[in-house]
Structure prediction request, 333 residues.
Amino acid sequence: MSMKLLVTGGAGFIGSNFVHYVYRERPDWQITVLDALTYAGNRANLDGLGESRVKLVVGNICDEKVVDTAVADCDAVVHFAAESHVDNSVHSPWPFVETNLVGTFRILEAVRKHKKRLHHISTDEVYGDLEPGDPKFSESTPYNPSSPYSATKAGSDHLVRAWIRSFGVQATLSNCSNNYGPYQHVEKFIPRQVTEILGGRRPKLYGTGENIRDWIHAEDHSSAILAILEKGKIGETYLVGVNAEKTNKEVLQLILKLMSKDADDYEHVSDRPGHDLRYAIDSSKIRNELGWQPKYTDFETGLADTVAWYKENEAWWKPQKEETEAKYKELGR
Ligand code: NAD
Ligand code: TDX
Prediction:
């Protein structure tokens, strides 16, 4: 069935990967991207997509009128738009409260009014962190967020569930683990390290580097979202991950190896306040109920593709780099 999709935050990292994925996989769908083009959004992320099928509306999800007009004109909304970087949230929380909570409220009110299908994108960080031996997060893990970022994402999930229960909004939710792949802003761990090395500097590990993240390629996250949009049960939450837990030190040393550097050619910098120790996802539900399967089951292959993308796309990341490192310098990291 042909569909008119509204993608909020579609000029950001995962949103744009999703738009490219849907463009390829569903050739008769129309896509409108609603994006404020904050420091994290980039028009260039949508380059190469035909204007007859993909339209960019530059606007803020906190703006009631803009959201109402965009939602009225679509069949379904996939809601990615958010402030997404934990370090920024610890430094300056207000934009997180505004976009992640007020913005999600605006989206919910518009889908309620216009009776549209919604898929809300969330994160594993809403569950807090795990000790190394603890069982992985599942759909029934209690919420226990640690940072202003994860607290506002948790709040947005609660709003979505309340709108489902109280108003019958037709929504699904997903909570995914750490994504990597093309178009990720250089403030994030993997692109920061790769572009530091490309710029002739040493990469930077927070604290001891023993913190564990569960890595998924953004293309696999995209295929999971499409599966939920098409086959997911209204009101349900699906956790998305590919069983790829790694310490930050392991990831960094893999990057160093892929870029032909010595394994100890990096710096330890001061740790993130409140730094979550470990995230890990049990994705049995989406695999068993929706038959979803990832493509990138080997992390090193996906990481090598990503390193190659940053090598080939210096013109894309160079303009973000100086300002990003200036912010880190202020934080002492
Ligand atoms: P990103 O920061 O790269 O992109 C966010 C996009 O939203 C940008 O294009 C930005 O311009 C836009 N935006 C921000 N505020 C806006 C506003 N008020 N109005 C309209 N647009 C606005 O983020 P990302 O890493 O692509 O994350 C996308 C979503 O996925 C977020 O909801 C995030 O919580 C979630 N998520 C991310 C990860 C990850 O590893 N990056 C993992 C799980 C879930
Ligand atoms: O320079 C660095 N050195 C370092 O050791 C940076 C930028 C990060 N780190 C560490 C902190 C984390 O343990 O690497 C890990 C990953 O850091 P980020 O890329 O900032 O990701 P994280 O904090 O885990 O959050 C990400 O995954 C979940 C996304 O940014 C969130 O939007 C998503 O919800």
About this structure: Residues 9, 11-15, 35-38, 40-41, 60-62, 80-84, 99, 103, 121, 123, 153, 176, 178-179, 185 surround nicotinamide-adenine-dinucleotide (ligand 1) (CB under 6 Å). Residues 4-180+215-240 form a domain with the Rossmann fold fold (CATH 3.40.50.720). The longest strand covers residues 117-123.
